[in-house]
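[09:14] KT: can someone run the structure on this one? pasting the chain below
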Amino acid sequence: MSASFTEGFSPIPFADAALLVPTQVSMIAAITIIYGFEANKRFLTAFMSATIGPLLATGLGRTLSANLLKLIPGAGSLGGGLISATTASLITTAMGEAYIRLMEMIIKGEIRKEDLETRAGKKQITQLFKKNLK
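[09:31] RB: done, structure tokens below
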């Protein structure tokens, strides 16, 4: 969360997105390994792709307006940075919490790891993410 806050606060408009994705993928890979699973590309891609839609729907407006604010020297950069940083950290936290819940569901046998690549599995991931985002 702190890394994503710092990256979101970047004073350079729209630069935070390029920084955030690797941070979020690294977080998901680390959680996967902590739960004793192999952090393979297919597994990580299934989760990330299921969270992209809700992420765009909920954060795009705030992210766009915050990055446009960063174009204004001084106060605009500070205000835009705070909005971007807060949005980035909240989205990253929601993503991490949803993924932890998903790992717990797999461990308990409520869902199979292989199911995550199916349409139903991705729908379940999306629901978990949306729930944690609220």
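[09:33] KT: thanks! The radius of gyration is 16 Å.
[09:34] RB: yep, looked fine to me
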